[in-house]
Specification:
It contains seven helices and five strands, in the order H-E-E-E-H-E-H-H-E-H-H-H. It is α/β, with parallel strands linked by helices and 206 residues long.
Length: 206
């Protein structure tokens, strides 16, 4: 826990960016009947019946100090999918970074082994050497700011029926661009000192 909190308190350095990463999913739902649009004195109405149309996965990469987020919509979130996202993070989005500080939870796909599963050993090692990985503690995924950003995405953009993946991608890109344009950052106030007081029961006793 303290490891992650201390990382959050480091000043911004473009050569060593701090990136928080998390994953989520969104079920696509089609309407079976045409909704009735809202009009003066009456709210919009839609039928309780719907048609399920698959599930898409969301990979969130959030740079809190710069107010920048990258959200990718995919069909799956396997170890190989995660590895592909990490390679893009290193080579496409942050090619000039000397090392990326990556905060994420302990999901079994979030390991160097996933990179070796997806790529040749030399390539996997190259990517790993660009990362300084910090894991949130068990039952402490709320310490990951990307999880908070996914919650904002869910409330602001995904809190309605979305029929298909193409529509989902369009909506997510629009949300991402708007948030990035205004450089909406996160004011993180929970410090190591706070943790020692408020989460005292989680610390081992000597």
């Amino acid at each position: 826990m303290e490891d992650v909190l201390e990382v959050y308190q480091q000043p911004y350095d473009e050569k060593y960016p701090l990136i928080c990463m998390d994953e989520s999913s969104k079920q696509q739902i089609k309407e079976t009947r045409t909704p009735i649009a809202a009009k003066p004195g009456s709210v919009a109405r839609y039928d309780t019946e719907y048609e399920r149309n698959g599930v898409s996965c969301l990979f969130m990469f959030f740079e809190p100090l710069q107010g920048k987020r990258i959200v990718n919509v995919t069909d799956r979130r396997t170890a190989v999918d995660w590895a592909g996202q990490i390679r893009d993070l290193v080579d496409v989005h942050y090619p000039h970074a000397e090392r990326i500080t990556l905060v994420m939870d302990n999901l079994n796909t979030h390991t160097g082994a996933s990179l070796y599963k997806a790529f040749a050993p030399q390539e996997a090692r190259r990517i790993l050497e660009k990362l300084a990985i910090h894991y949130t503690p068990k039952h402490g995924s709320w310490l990951n700011m990307a999880e908070i950003e996914l919650s904002i995405l869910s409330r602001q953009c995904l809190d309605r029926r979305i029929p298909d993946q193409d529509t989902l991608k369009t909506e997510v890109v629009a949300w991402q661009e708007k948030r990035n344009t205004i450089e909406s950052s996160m004011e993180w106030r929970f410090t190591t000192e706070d943790a020692r007081i408020k989460l005292k029961k989680l610390y081992p006793t000597v």
